[in-house]
Design goal:
alpha/beta; seven-stranded mixed beta sheet; 7 helices; 37% helix; globular; binds S-adenosylmethionine; EC 2.1.1.170; Ribosomal RNA small subunit methyltransferase G
């Protein structure tokens, strides 16, 4: 997928597209020196990473004002969502424990001219938000049970969770159901027929 094909697929406003192109310029520059995303995925990054992230936007509640992305890595999905949701006034927080990746996220966010962005360079387990986010997102961070443990520590009763999940989503749901009550909607992925997006609400621990 080319950037122009991404634009046609998502129909993002021109200004948002320019910001994503700027993110990509910084990503490619850093990728020559650092391993930010798997090298095998760089050629098809507009499909594998940008579209994979952008597909979350139509699923998110319009009333949301705060979003926290866990283990953001090179900014997927968190930095893409920050660019796409800034016009809606959504504040985006990225939590990432690797300092080098945080430096990338901060530099890319500044180059993109994004103002609704906060990068927390800490482990999720020790991060203190000071607010209960409306939305928590994550991709390729941990299996669902562990993700929910991370999330529950940060979130409030009304928080909704959107996790991009791979092939073993059913196994992860079965495992997590031993420890968590939750309402789950499983959305098909637009980028990978074997993958799914889990939308989770009403999360509570099994007692
Ligand atoms: C496999 S990468 C995925 C990155 C990105 N979400 C993506 O899908 O491209 C997982 C990222 O989570 C970060 N990470 C892992 N455990 C973490 C923790 N406990 N707290 C914060 N970040 C963590 C790692 O440093 C890494 O950048």
């Amino acid at each position: 997928m080319t950037p122009e094909e991404f634009l046609a697929e998502t129909n993002v406003p021109r200004e948002t597209f320019e910001r994503l192109l700027e993110m990509d310029r910084v990503l490619i520059d850093w990728s020559e020196r650092h391993n930010l995303v798997a090298r095998s995925t760089i050629k098809d990054r507009w499909h594998r990473h940008y579209l994979d992230s952008a597909q979350l936007v139509p699923l998110l509640p319009e009333s949301a004002k705060t979003l926290v992305d866990l283990g953001s890595g090179a900014g997927f999905p968190g930095l893409v969502l920050a660019a796409m949701l800034e016009p809606e006034g959504v504040q985006v927080t990225l939590i990432e424990s690797t300092q080098k990746k945080c430096a990338f996220l901060t530099e890319a966010g500044a180059a993109m001219g994004i103002k609704n962005l906060q990068v927390i360079p800490e482990r999720i387990e020790s991060a203190r938000l000071g607010f209960k986010p409306d939305i928590v997102t994550a991709r390729a961070l941990a299996r669902l049970d562990k993700l929910l443990g991370y999330s529950a520590g940060l979130a409030g009763k009304k928080t909704k969770y959107y996790f991009l999940k791979g092939q073993d989503v059913e196994g992860e749901l079965t495992e997590a159901a031993k420890y968590w009550h939750m309402n789950v909607i499983k959305h098909p992925s637009r980028t990978d027929p074997r993958a799914a997006i889990l939308e989770i609400g009403n999360l509570a621990r099994v007692r």
